# Entry
Amino acid sequence: MDKLEKFIREKRASFDDLTPPDSTWRKINGRLDSEGRQVFLTRHMWKAATVLLFAAVIWLMVDRQDQQDPLNLSQIETSEGIDLRQVENYYVNLIENKQHEIRNFIDVYPEADEQLLSDVYKLDSSYQELKKKLLQGPNEKIIDAMVINLQTRIEILNQQLNVLEHIKQLKEENDETSKI
# Structure
């Protein structure tokens, strides 16, 4: 027990003999009421700000999508009769998921680096060039090249994920061996 605590315990009775006047309690209660109103208003302000932010993000996403697709891809069909927008959305979602898995692996195993995704980034820039050519006029060869580009990116990402999984297994086996 430190000296201050010992002093307070010994002198407690002399501290507790006085009671504060009623006006003190009224002032404290008045402050609590006004702080309660402020907290209530602050919470509602944050909720309103969140709703506005959410609405702004949705609007920006829709606006951005319109800017990214000056040529209406949903009106262009692949050789199989599927609209190009659906094909692109399907493959882009797969690619983003696989890139996310690789980034998670890089976070856990820093020795793997962002270079793993460099080939995919190069293919993405090629894809954007193909999209620009498509703006000049729909062409079946360009559409096929776009789909092949998307499929190639997925194949590369799958191969990289397989290699990373193999590295992870080897590292775990090595860690187990070193524990023994």
Observations:
- Residues 17-66 form one domain.
- Residues 22-68 form the longest helix (47 residues).
